[in-house]
Design a protein that fits this description.
Layout lengths: L4 H12 L1 H7 L2 H20 L3 H25 L3 H19 L4 E5 L5 E4 L1 H7 L3 H4 L13 H8 L9 E8 L5 E12 L5 E10 L1 H22 L4 E5 L5 E4 L1 H7 L3 H4 L10 H12 L7 E8 L5 E10 L5 E7 L1 H39 L6 H16 L1 E8 L9 E5 L3 H7 L7 H9 L3 E3 L21 E8 L2 E11 L7 H39 L4 E6 L4 E3 L1 H7 L31 H7 L4 E9 L5 E12 L5 E10 L1 H38 L6 H31 L8 E3 L1 H14 L5 E4 L7 E3 L1 H18 L6 E7 L3 E9 L5 H6 L19 H11 L4 E5 L3 E9 L7
Parallel strand pairs: 22-24
Antiparallel strand pairs: 1-2, 1-5, 3-4, 4-5, 6-7, 6-10, 8-9, 9-10, 11-12, 11-15, 13-14, 14-15, 16-17, 16-20, 18-19, 19-20, 21-23, 24-25, 25-27, 26-27
Helix pairs in contact: 1-4, 3-4, 4-5, 13-14, 13-17, 14-17, 20-21, 21-25, 22-23, 23-25
Length: 866
């Protein structure tokens, strides 16, 4: 080994000062130099690198110092003395600059020299420690050991290095490595001891950290899920973790010394050798390998091999058999998914074709839909023959039979259509799928009719809707296969499920078309004009309505076109658009029954119409449109006019006989009042009562005739309505035991009207309350002043009237079915209604749970302008 630089300098210094050494030629100096060289050589053996240099420097410095003192005493030349002193300074500088503590002690352990690194390590300055024992910087428990090491061994020049514990001046313990080197003279006597001290606290910390990391790594390897195998450069296993033993099912003891190739097939073992030969340090190789378990089974493993720096190979083994199987399953699943996707796409296209066929039903028929279903089923399964039958009666052929794949000549040879019997009947009656490799293998087969082409494989699927049979699909002879597959069956069952909805829709379309056609024909045959309007403004008219609206040909109609149909009130005033019965029914949901109005026919002649309208609602109660019926009642009006004319004539002609009867009866009553017996007097009273009732009837009939002819005359004048009502109520109160409540305001303005007719209105309303109110209950009359009119109401207690009855109360001769036993003609309210309207007022009825009220208004007399 080449000598370190300090050692070379030492040799150079020795050569350079050789004359000086000869000049002093002192045996003592030669001994000292020999001791220095011995110190250097010992240091070279005892320590390497920096330790060697430091020991050499320390020994050289000591030797030169002694040589300097010897030369001084021997009287050497001044130049040699200075050169030696400079060499000493250089070597002392090297020792002083050292990072490790260096000291020299006597044989008894007394410190003689102490470098700055030692001062930093122990906290003792050189002059403070000089003359003290080296054991003062050693922990008390380790002093005996150090003292023993300090004793020089005879004939031993080796450095004694050992770990011990130093003691800082402040009491801090310091882990160190201490080396002792005996310094001997030329005669081999130990004249001093060189001490090198190295702080190993950081080193020990690093060693402990490395030890912890090694333990953690070993623990991680041991508990890893993957098998970890460590092999030497020949491939023999040096260590195996628990997972590796478990993977192969072999104990660790049995695996150590073996190779991984021993658990591989021959070709895999050869591949392993090739891979190991090509490994490069730091570059792992990952691959899949077959490994044999103890039970003889094989597993697929992923092996990751890493070449370590010392030539060993570490392998990480993971069992991927399950992953491989899952991957294979995933590949199979992907293939199945692609297949299913294709089937779904085909089914979607088939369903779209069926849906399109259903959507075209108004232009096509049900057979077209059936044919689309048959063709789609044939395409899905690649069948030679396909058919669809509707019906389940075995005694009759299928109601509808649509087929594909059979020529017209073959169908003609067969003749009649098939019946749902045999295999066809089993599918239809039992509503179950039948799939056969060969029809001859079925016990339900009954054979083919003459002229029928031979068939072998068979697939029959029922078409159901909400659990009920709607038809059956039959397929025969799969092209390119011996039989229909389970996938074919599944595809046809899905198609049948969707076809069930299509067939039900087609059936409903067909039935709705028939019903609509029948209904339209029936409505067109009605003499009344019928107008239908939906919420979107579309309008339908029957023949009578088109004539009334004066449409030409097939002209389209909407709500705007109905503006041609102008309706008038009975007074001749045009009805506003918002008041038309159809408009109110469509936009307000108001039902109108029997409203009389006027219109014009196609000859522009005025005709009387009876209008009724009602809103149309769906099953959820939401409005969807309205219907209006206009009936031409011109003939009825003419008949009614003649009847009213006849009634007026009869009433007029009856008045004179009735007056005569009444006058004669009163004459008899006055002339012989004292001579009449009780029976005769009673008879005369009955004659007078009957004559009075007959006169009231005649009067009512005449009033009705005048109202209808609009010839009712009123003698208007200012009327004290409060006094008039009080008088009428008081008169009625004296003729019955019923109680009357009259509510009059303190100040009531006069009204402008005919007092006799107003009295007649009150009499009719009070008579109605007495006749139809509950017996024993009071009758209330209220009067209320408004801005330009006075409101009068009569209220009686009794059962509630239905809204339909309330609307009919003011019609001629109308009598409620609930009170048909009570005498009357049903003209009192009609006359009251006509009289109120003649005064320019309004009259209406309101009925609640336990009472019915009649209310009418009369205009207040307006003051004459000044």
């Amino acid at each position: 080994m080449a000598s370190p630089a300090p050692f070379a300098r030492l040799r150079h210094a020795h050569t350079r000062h050789r004359p000086f050494a000869r000049s002093i030629a002192g045996p003592r100096l030669l001994a000292i130099l020999a001791a220095c060289l011995g110190l250097v050589m010992v240091g070279a053996r005892a320590a390497g690198g920096a330790a060697f240099v430091l020991l050499a420097a320390a020994g050289t410095a000591v030797a030169l110092d002694r040589a300097l003192r010897a030369s001084t005493r021997g009287g050497g030349s001044a130049g040699d003395h200075d050169a030696l002193a400079g060499e000493i300074r250089r070597w002392r500088s090297l020792v002083a600059a050292a990072d490790q503590a260096i000291a020299t002690v006597t044989r008894s352990g007394i410190v003689t020299t102490w470098n700055p690194a030692a001062e930093r390590m122990y906290g003792w300055r050189a002059h403070e420690i000089a003359g003290r024992s080296l054991l003062e910087v050693v922990a008390e428990a380790r002093r005996a050991e150090v003292a023993a090491k300090l004793e020089p061994r005879s004939g031993g020049d080796g450095a004694a290095s050992f770990e011990t514990v130093g003691l800082h001046r402040d009491g801090t313990r310091v882990d160190v490595v201490m080396s002792f080197v005996p310094l001997r003279d030329a005669r081999g006597r130990c004249v001093a001891v060189g001490v090198l001290v190295r702080d190993i606290r950081e080193t020990k910390g690093l060693q402990q950290a490395v030890s912890r990391l090694e333990r953690d790594y070993d623990d991680l390897v041991e508990h890893a899920d993957d098998g970890v195998f460590l092999a030497d450069h020949e491939g023999r296993l040096l260590s195996v973790n628990r997972a590796g033993s478990r993977l192969l099912g072999v104990s660790r003891g049995a695996l150590l010394g073996e190779t991984l190739a021993a658990v591989m097939p021959g070709d895999e073992a050869r591949r392993l050798a090739s891979v190991r030969a090509g490994l490069v340090a730091g570059e792992p190789h990952v691959g899949e390998w077959l490994l044999r378990k103890r039970d003889g089974s094989w597993m697929t493993a992923e092996v990751r091999m890493v070449l370590l720096g010392d030539g060993r190979v570490q392998s990480f083994v993971r069992d991927i058999s399950e992953e491989t199987a899952k991957h294979a399953e995933l590949v199979h699943a992907h293939a199945t998914e692609r297949k299913v996707r294709v089937q779904l796409q085909t089914l979607s296209e088939a369903t779209s074709a069926i849906t399109d066929a259903v959507a075209r039903i108004p232009q096509t028929d049900v057979d077209a839909v059936l044919m689309v279903i048959v063709l789609q089923a044939q395409t899905l399964t690649n069948a030679r023959y396909a058919a669809l039958g509707l019906g389940t009666d075995p005694a009759r052929p299928f109601e509808r039979w649509v087929y594909a794949g059979m020529t017209a000549e073959q169908a003609a040879a067969i003749g009649r259509g098939p019946r749902p019997v045999g295999l066809l009947g089993a599918v239809a009656h039992q509503a179950r799928t039948i799939r056969l490799r060969d029809i001859d293998d079925s016990g339900e087969r009954i054979g083919f009719p003459p002229g029928h082409p031979p068939m072998h494989s068979f697939l029959g699927v029922p078409i159901l809707y909400e659990g009920r049979s709607r038809g059956n699909l039959y397929l025969a002879d799969k092209l390119g296969g011996a039989e229909f597959t389970a996938d074919d069956q599944q595809a046809i069952e899905v198609l049948a499920a969707r076809a069930g909805t299509a067939l039900e829709t087609a059936r409903l379309y067909h039935e709705e078309t028939l019903a609509t056609t029948w209904l339209r024909s029936a409505i067109d045959g009605i003499l009344e004009a019928v107008i239908l309007a939906d919420a979107n403004g579309r309008v339908s008219l029957n023949a009578a309505a088109r004539e009334l609206v004066q449409l030409e040909g097939d002209e389209e109609v909407n709500l705007d076109a109905l503006s041609r149909l102008t309706l008038y009130e009975t007074t001749g005033e045009p009805l506003p658009s918002a008041a038309l019965p159809l408009t109110r029914a469509l936009h307000e949901g108001v039902t109108t029954i029997g409203m009389e109005c006027m219109g014009r026919n196609k000859k522009l002649q005025q005709i009387a119409l009876l209008a009724s309208a009602s809103p149309l609602r769906d099953g959820g109660g939401e409005p969807v449109g309205a219907v209006c019926v206009l009936r031409d009642i011109s003939t009825l009006k003419e008949i009614e006019r003649l009847r009213e004319q006849w009634t007026a004539i009869i009433a007029h002609e009856l008045r004179q006989p009735v007056h005569m009867i009444t006058a004669c009866a009163r004459t008899i009553e006055r002339a012989r009042r004292t001579e009449l017996d009780p029976l005769a007097a009673k008879s005369v009273g009955r004659i007078l009562g009957a004559a009075a009732r007959l006169e009231r009837m005649i009067k009512d009939l005449l009033d009705v005739a005048r109202i209808e002819a609009r010839q009712l005359a009123l003698h208007r004048e200012p009327v004290d309505l409060g006094a008039l009502i009080s008088e009428v109520v008081g008169r009625f109160a004296h003729t019955t035991d019923r109680l009357f409540h009259l509510n009059l305001p303190g100040q009531l303005p006069r009204v402008h009207g005919d007092p006799g007719r107003i009295e007649q209105i009150l009499e009719n309303l009070l008579t109605n309350a007495l006749k139809y109110g509950d017996p024993g209950t009071p009758i209330t009359v209220c009067v209320e002043q408004r801005e330009r009119e006075v409101l009068v109401s009569t209220t009686n207690q009794g059962h509630r009237l239905a809204p339909a009855e309330v609307d009919c109360l003011f019609k001629r001769f109308y009598r409620s079915r609930m009170v048909e036993s009570i005498e009357g003609l049903g003209l009192g309210l009609y006359i009251a209604h006509g009289l109120v309207e003649a005064h320019g007022g309004q009259i209406w009825a309101e009925s609640c749970e336990a009472s019915t009220s009649f209310r009418f208004t009369l205009p207040i007399e307006q003051a004459a302008p000044k």
